Amino acid sequence: MIREQLTDNNCCAQAQEFKAADYKSDQSVRWCPGCGDHAILNTLHKAMAELGVPPHRIAVISGIGCSSRLPYYMNTYGFHTIHGRAAAIATGFKVANPEMTVWQVSGDGDGLAIGGNHFIHAIRRNVDINMLLFNNKIYGLTKGQYSPTCERGFVSKSSPYGTTEDPFIPAELVFGARGNFFARSIDVDLETSREVMVAAGRHKGTSVVEVLQNCMIFNNGVHNRYADRAVRADRTIHLRHGEKMIFGADSNKALVQDGFLLKAVTIGEDGYTLDDVLVHDAHCTSNFLHQQLAMMDGDSLPLAVGVIRDVDTPTYDESVSEQVREVRTHKGFDSLRSMILAGDTWTVE
């Protein structure tokens, strides 16, 4: 049915311009007032309009959690799946429907706990899907248990005396799985969120966008130390490909190389000039510097937002499709049945 609709509507859709409203469903949005998910949803609608992919050529697939209600609020194909399995289902859907644009939505619990294995393998395979990872460092839907991204010592309903675990850092998992696209934004920074979502949608292969999202009820203010408007300019750095790594309320702070590490300096002090400031190269195939940038936490070094890595490599779904075409050509298969019956067969009576 999807492919029939694509064939029927493709010519008209190519000439049509879209607005954010074209991607909104008629469903009432049922998130808590003040939840960061509202901002992410609205930004996603705007990003999709900018990308210009017709709604009938988009599928939004989610797992379980507050973030995973998002497909209901999209005027696209959608699939609210089971806990931790969004990446697996998104992979299968994309391979079966390579002409579709697939967005996968997960929270830090759904995506990195029960879904952690699917998360890293989708990235390793480089399936052409766009992953939105909402990171509020808590299980919100199930009422405030600690998640895989909670800091050691975090007190919650399931860790009343503080967690005794170290957290996953999503960027570290992405790079460990040899990811080729990683970006980060903050829910209250709508323009950066739109920018990275558009870049993710244009990337061929697995794109991961971590959105640092606030849960008003169970973990309010978890990102305030770098997200609050009063400190954001000094504690975050917006990376843009080809531009100097400069930040600060007065745009006088910058990142420089310090041996094999990074160092934050003030331009004009201690002998540092604009010539010493690093230029961001998101397309560099080596991920050495990208990892360092992504691991900055907003304390001694500013938290990096924007597109940190964006490198083109062959995608899983394209490689599978090409392999199928080659086998059909050389083996003469025209169906799954002909492939199965091509070898030795016998009849059991």
Q: Could you give the count of β-strands? A: 11
Estimate the helix proportion, in percent: 25-40%
Question: How large is the share of residues in beta strands?
Answer: 15-25%
Order of helices and strands: HHEEHEHHEHEHEHHEEEEHEHH
Taking pLDDT < 50 over at least 5 consecutive residues as the criterion, the unreliable ranges are 1-13
Distance, first to last CA? 40 Å
The order of strands across the largest sheet is 2-1-3-4-6-5-11-7
Helix/strand-derived category reads alpha/beta
Largest sheet features: 8 strands, mixed
List strands and helices in order, with pairings.
Elements: H1 2-14, H2 36-51, E1 58-62, E2 77-80, H3 86-96, E3 101-107, H4 108-114, H5 116-125, E4 130-135, H6 170-176, E5 181-186, H7 190-202, E6 207-212, H8 224-227, H9 232-235, E7 236-239, E8 246-247, E9 253-258, E10 261-266, H10 288-295, E11 303-310, H11 316-331, H12 336-340
Parallel strand pairs: 1-2, 1-3, 3-4, 4-6, 5-6, 7-11
Antiparallel strand pairs: 5-11, 8-9, 9-10
Helix pairs in contact: 2-7, 4-5
Explain what the structure shows.
The strands form two sheets. Strands 2-1-3-4-6-5-11-7 form an eight-stranded mixed sheet, sandwiched between helices. It is globular. Residues 1-13 have low confidence and may be disordered. The chain is built from twelve helices and eleven strands. With 349 residues, the protein is α/β, with parallel strands linked by helices. A hairpin with a 5-residue loop joins β8 and β9 (253-258). The longest helix is centred in the first third of the chain and has 16 residues, at 36-51.
